[in-house]
UniProtKB/TrEMBL annotation, chains A, B, C, D:
Domain GFO/IDH/MocA-like oxidoreductase: 146-292
Pfam families in alphabetical order: GFO_IDH_MocA, GFO_IDH_MocA_C3
Protein name from the UniProt record: Dehydrogenase
GO molecular function per UniProt: nucleotide binding; oxidoreductase activity
Gfo/Idh/MocA-like oxidoreductase N-terminal domain sequence ranges: 6-124
Source organism (scientific name): Curtobacterium luteum
Keyword set, alphabetical order: NAD, Oxidoreductase
Length: 392, 392, 392, 392
């Protein structure tokens, strides 16, 4: 960076913009980042709404010219929270302008886009420019702690992994049509939206890569009522119906290679029809010496089973991951005091900024984001090919 | 015993009679008792109903003459399942006739009765006659395992104990009057009925005795609708109301002495107003090195917390108590296959008969039953004395 | 039946023989079967061990001649608990002799055998002979209650089903070779042993049939230490290793047809590598109006989610299935008192005998057992064909 | 307020100062407060440490002169986070200077102090000055939702309440002496520190007041190792021991009056010896029509039991309190995304500021804080009087 502070431009100001803003605002209050950070500019398409977001989220200025913002010599960091279709253009422009880039997941809407972005990141890396993908759930302390347990060999050889991302907002077949169900707008359905998280978590925690997949995509409800005015979750339903063109649910089995899970089999599911589950990203890992269970709806907890304990004393142990010994937690509140969803973004900002300061490459890299994209692509290809096993 | 087999007379054939019958019928099928047992005679007041029970529960004969049955030279064991008010007379007659006696809890309806029974048991013991009180929850494998953990020092010095027995069948204030709410018939309310179990469990698991208590008894609903025909849980409600003369709920704090819990404080509750809890006998024990949690509604599980585990790896461990290493469980099914309420009676029969065969005194003894009676009495005296601390 | 009582011959006296004996012994004590039942003869191959089982389980006589026993004119019912390879011969002989047959699952070791048995059962049915397959988990009260909820439409249209049978006795790669891992002896691995239960439960509870499957079979550890003396779970390990020739784990996705789950997708898993899970048969069903969750390790509980409840008041409800309103439970203990694994066999005996008395066909029929066999076969074929979707 | 913005002075910058700062910083980003707020000055005793806190928490200026700060004409709001012994002086000075006051709990270290503060608050109220006590757990959405359920009559007549505050940082008897265990410095032990929260929650949720109490205080470990340098949780233990002069644990039973819990009995416990429980504020309320359960260690969840549901369908329902229909939650993240401990302070700031803007008195008032003080005092008097029932 050119100065004693990092000036940040955030592109996009929807749900992810709110979450990232909270991260930029809060991280310096709880972590020693090694540098001052400045919430310099928020960028959006609509001047009025962008200005409203500026005020609400606490950015210094607002802009509707993303290219000017991300190439501004006064900007050091570009944080991309805009829709997936815009990632490729913004990220490459920012990287070429020498800005460090934090890009929301999924990295892009296609493998080709992700490849272009990864090439740009690799080129920029040579001159010390850092890039990272926003798989924020890696920064849930219970997940980071699970990774430590795996790395310390506490699970032994991992044989099976199960990663489900369970939501239910489509369970009602009369729920309205939205842009998220239109492939031309959303790119993909539950697979890319939430399945991507499940893939990244498994690879991150086990240190293995998905090598081949056999998958199925399903659209249970193919037509949904159109809202009288535009698409959206509120409004008056009209009698007309729109065509759902993305997957409602994705199911796939994968063979893993490398790390503690070499040769393991993983089962994956991403669905919006899991009635009663709101944000149920669940992860179960079974190894020769132990096992772990995680559920994002109880994100401060990790269940750990130590299969090397004496016979009769084994059981899943509910660890409340709020001890100072746990990743990230020394910075927050006393033991037993929970953190929430948004804290993962403070952790993300912390890790990203500290890597920039240290001159190291943060993780997940664009290469890792590209790999997830390739897995998604392989699942789609397998599903189109009658669930045939497909190499990633 | 006079022969190669133990012939059993069971007095009473209500709920407890059904449970004990299942114990006598099943124990020899799963445990090596060291002797044949014979379900010789069931005794009741009404000839027709007793004969029906004989057929249903599988006893060889039925009788309405309890005294003849319990003094019959062909009988070796008397199992008393009749109402508490009858315990003193039947038990003493049986003991004086040289029969081994298993007596349902509570031992008696008063301290004086329990003292007389205990004296009779002590006298009979001299000539090898065995006696035991039916606190069957000691024989829940998870409870027996909890006791092993305490005895092995895994909890360190126990500081606090919480034992609640939570039921809800009186939560509805328009629930009908029954004989159980009439002190002249039932002797006592929730304190004696279910509180006695909580007291025995705490003393059994910790090895300590309650020494002094401060207690409160409460009757929330003092009048309840009388049934048009007699008292009972079914039938048509009449417009008349009956007077509730027993406690609805009992609350007491105790100081413990001896064992691993010397100097500890115990908090106790017995209630029939714990809406949503059906048979919630819960036990929590906190020590310097560990803690346990138990709930009878999940009776195959014990939660154990090891406070000596490494920092960051501590958590309540859900142990499914179905391993062959666990008390009683090697006799039953493979690991992970649950047992139920009635199994505690098979365990009770097993322990009782094996003690008879071995010529040893089984536990809980009548002395222990008398002690529980004294605790109940002290709680009542404390409650009558404005919760003043009362020596047991 | 020829008389006022049903005389039973039980073939086989291992784990299932013990469980069925407990069912025959206990069912008449808690249910009105409408007829006397008599535990007439237990049949085994080894005279000494069969006699020991006779004494332990309480059968009147023991025999080593299965054919004589199952064709004995004094026998009314044949209960087949012997290994799967023997089912076809014993069942057909018994049916042809006009005996009612209860046959343990899986119905047979192959589709061809199951077809022959089903044909025999169909022929016998014409003359009033009843036959049933022992999928005992249908008789877990929580499962029977779940089926009632589905049938009452409380889940609406079922979209997704997940049925996992999770055990962990192979998680240790140094666990010894046993006959269960040898295809020539066991026929199949986790797929047939435990996966069959998952298939039957899904079809039973939803009323739908699996129509097509895409599956994967995996053997994680292909060689295991041979015991110095024979194969078995105890004994001294030798330095030699045996070849594992069955599946360690099976994974499959199915499309369902019919019932409340027409068009639904089911995901299935059967594994012996789920570290920490001992007998984890879990069932989750998601519908447009509600959902249920079940875990055999907490078999007295059903989680129910009512998606039609007011916004803000929805949540998975932990129903303790011990109320008199719940299937089978009025016969047992007061509310909140749990039952265990073996009770499912009392329920099975009850339903089977009551059907015989009523002159009705019990369920699951041999046809249903054959169907499960065909599903297992289709999974194997799919797995051999690169997980291609395969019609059942 | 004199202007279009509220300028805040915060006195104290320890644990509570960090939490309140996060509240002041975050509340305006998620809620429409109706006015701008300004984090104007943080006040501490040590200039260097106060300046460090200023930078870390984001206040504009730092000061060591609390009186100057709280009487500064430019200040509108005083937020008191300093130790309890200082509350009386600071609060009265601020109120007399016409500042709105938010005062951390407990309101004061004695009833006399609390009375003086309450008189000052009452006097100031006449001229529109607002005051509030910081019982932040009222602002846990699950607690606020529980209160709504009680107020809507969903629990019917409340009969029993159980409120436990369970921590374990003293479970190890060799844990060091700290100022919190010295009565001259801390004023009180677990009773005032955490028991106060339990009292306030019960009164808040039920709408009833504690009327009389019977209590016991206990110090299990009376001497603890002194740190070589000063008192504190870190450092080297010396061989000398200090005297513990506060209660380790407090137990009390109370009769409630008013609201939905008129005539109910409440049982309370506050302890630092509940091994394995870190921040276990648990609340259970049982009524004629329903019940609720809450545990702060799972603060996003409320268990609700509807006793008016059909027989067989009743069960504790795990409601994840993250729906837009739930109190405070529409402002945060999508359904199923958790919030944490610190969010209660944003809610506190929101409610406090909105009340100031609306010209209404916020709750809990100083009168309510005084009442909690009186309950604590009555428990201490009862404990000193052999647990005699004591009027509050």
């Amino acid at each position: 960076m050119a100065s004693d502070r990092l000036r940040v431009a955030m592109v996009g100001h929807g749900f992810m913009g709110a979450a990232h803003s909270q991260g930029w605002r809060t991280a310096p209050r709880f972590f020693d980042l090694g540098v001052e950070t400045e919430m310099t500019v928020v960028v959006g398409r609509d001047a009025e709404r962008t200005e409203a977001s500026r005020r609400q989220y606490g950015w210094q200025t607002a802009s509707t010219d993303w290219r000017a913002a991300v190439t501004d010599p006064d900007i050091d960091v570009v944080d991309i929270c805009s829709p997936g279709s815009s990632h490729v253009e913004v990220a490459i422009a920012a990287l070429e302008a020498g800005k460090h880039v934090l890009c929301e997941k999924p990295l892009a809407n296609s493998v080709a886009e992700a490849e272009a972005m990864t090439a740009a990141a690799a080129a920029a890396r040579a001159s010390g420019v850092r890039s990272m993908v926003g798989f924020s759930y890696r920064r849930v302390p219970a997940i980071a702690f699970a990774k430590q347990l795996v790395e310390a060999g506490r699970l032994g050889t991992v044989r099976q992994v199960r990663a489900l991302y369970l939501q239910d907002w489509l369970a009602d077949p009369e729920g309205p049509m939205t842009w998220r169900l239109d492939k031309s707008l959303a790119g993909s359905g539950s697979l890319g939206d939430i399945g991507a998280h499940a893939i990244d978590l498994v690879e991150h925690v086990t240190g293995a890569s998905l090598a081949t997949v056999s998958g199925t995509l399903e659209t249970f409800v193919t037509e949904r009522p159109l809202m009288a005015e535009g698409v959206g979750l509120s409004g008056t339903a009209s009698s007309e119906r729109g065509q759902v063109t993305v997957d409602d649910a994705a199911f796939f089995t994968a063979r893993l290679a490398g790390g503690a899970a070499d040769g393991a089999i993983g089962t994956f599911e991403a669905t919006r029809y899991a009635t009663g589950r709101k944000n149920g990203l669940t992860l179960e890992i079974s190894g020769s010496d132990g096992a772990i269970q995680f559920d994002l709806e109880s994100m401060n907890e990790l269940r750990f089973y130590d299969a090397t304990a004496p016979a009769g004393e084994q059981g899943f142990q509910r660890i409340i991951v709020t001890e100072p010994e746990h990743p990230y937690m020394a910075a927050w509140w006393p033991t037993g005091h929970l953190i929430g969803y948004e804290h993962t973004f403070s952790h993300e900002v912390k890790d990203f900024v500290q890597a920039i300061v240290a001159g190291e490459d943060p993780s997940p890299s664009f290469e890792e984001g590209l790999h997830v994209q390739r897995v998604l692509d392989a699942v789609e290809r397998s599903a189109a090919d009658g669930s045939a096993w497909t190499v990633i």
